[in-house]
């Protein structure tokens, strides 16, 4: 399984990173809209939207929201979506400790998850495109950082995992794994800060923001686990050998991207748009 995951990530991830780093903005827009469109289709399936036509319309709305927000609304609309993503994922983080599958009725959770998909996927797409507009390597940094966090959590959890992180949601995740992932994020953020010769007054907030982004990425993973557990699915799909579906691969990014972009705005590293 691990070997298959590495092969798939290398075959698809490396070209995608190269396109993000050096490709034209229109190509990155197509890549982001297509990737999150596939993730949206899987979300719609897991959230049990009724009928193929409804799922197609829901997915099309997500893709249109990602592709047209900035062109139609300008930087102000882009920023508004980013901040919406921060609020929604912050609320998700606060609500996860209270989730219990025995008391979460389908009549409430099914429409809630359907609406949440729109409020989580569209802002993530807007945030990724905003980061790319500011500096393409910020998107590369985000993707690599989350990959390292997942890797650190995987190996630390296997070696030291004892205490379950969220037993009602994802019994396989441990607090020791979380700490291993955060250790990887910390080391990577420090190395990037040193390599880019950040001023110490900028490096400290950058590293702290990276740790917050790493933590919120776990919320994205856990939230998708709720989707899968409520439908009895092991993976969101089967498009990526060794990984499952597209949503399985980008769930952490959905939460992390708005927080990184919003954090840069809060730190005044994102120029305030003329609204």
Structural description of this entry:
The structure is a single chain. The chain has about 280 residues and is mostly helical. It is built from 8 helices and 2 strands, in the order H-H-H-H-H-E-E-H-H-H. Strands 1-2 form a two-stranded antiparallel sheet. Strand 1 (about 165) and strand 2 form a beta hairpin. Helix 3 crosses helix 7 (about 200-230), helix 4 packs across helix 5 and helix 4 crosses helix 8.
Shape descriptor reads globular
Total domains: 1
Major β-sheet annotation: 2 strands, antiparallel
Low-confidence regions: none
Structure classification: mainly alpha
Helix percent band: over 70%
Mean pLDDT, rounded to whole units? Answer: 88
Q: Nutshell version of this structure?
A:
The protein is mainly alpha-helical and 275 residues long. It contains eight helices and two strands. It has a two-stranded antiparallel ribbon with strand order 1-2.
What is the topological layout?
Elements (H helix, E strand, L loop, with lengths): L1 H21 L2 H22 L5 H44 L10 H29 L1 H25 L3 E3 L3 E5 H21 L4 H32 L14 H21 L9
Antiparallel strand pairs: 1-2
Helix pairs in contact: 1-5, 2-3, 2-4, 2-8, 3-4, 3-7, 3-8, 4-5, 4-8, 5-6, 5-8, 6-7, 7-8
Index terms:
275 residues; mainly alpha; two-stranded antiparallel sheet; 8 helices; 2 strands; 3% strand; globular
């Amino acid at each position: 399984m691990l070997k298959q995951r590495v092969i798939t990530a290398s075959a698809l991830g490396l070209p995608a990173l190269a396109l993000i780093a050096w490709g034209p903005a229109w190509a990155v827009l197509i890549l982001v809209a297509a990737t999150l469109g596939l993730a949206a289709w899987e979300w719609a399936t897991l959230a049990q939207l009724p009928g193929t036509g409804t799922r197609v319309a829901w997915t099309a709305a997500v893709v249109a929201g990602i592709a047209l927000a900035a062109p139609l609304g300008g930087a102000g609309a882009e920023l508004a979506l980013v901040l919406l993503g921060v609020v929604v994922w912050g609320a998700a983080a606060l609500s996860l400790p209270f989730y219990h599958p025995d008391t979460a009725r389908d009549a409430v959770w099914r429409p809630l998850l359907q609406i949440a998909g729109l409020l989580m996927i569209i802002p993530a797409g807007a945030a990724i495109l905003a980061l790319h507009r500011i500096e393409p390597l910020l998107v590369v940094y985000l993707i690599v950082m989350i990959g390292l966090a997942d890797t650190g959590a995987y190996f630390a959890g296997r070696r030291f995992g004892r205490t379950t992180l969220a037993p009602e949601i994802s019994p396989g995740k441990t607090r020791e794994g979380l700490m291993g992932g955060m250790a990887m994020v910390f080391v990577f953020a420090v190395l990037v800060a040193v390599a880019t010769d950040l001023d110490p007054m900028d490096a400290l907030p950058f590293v702290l923001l990276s740790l917050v982004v790493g933590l919120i990425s776990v919320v994205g993973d856990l939230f998708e686990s709720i989707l899968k557990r409520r439908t009895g699915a092991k993976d969101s799909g089967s498009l990526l050998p060794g990984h499952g579906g597209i949503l399985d691969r980008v769930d952490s990014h959905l939460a992390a991207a708005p927080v990184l972009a919003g954090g840069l705005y809060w730190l005044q590293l994102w120029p305030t748009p003329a609204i």
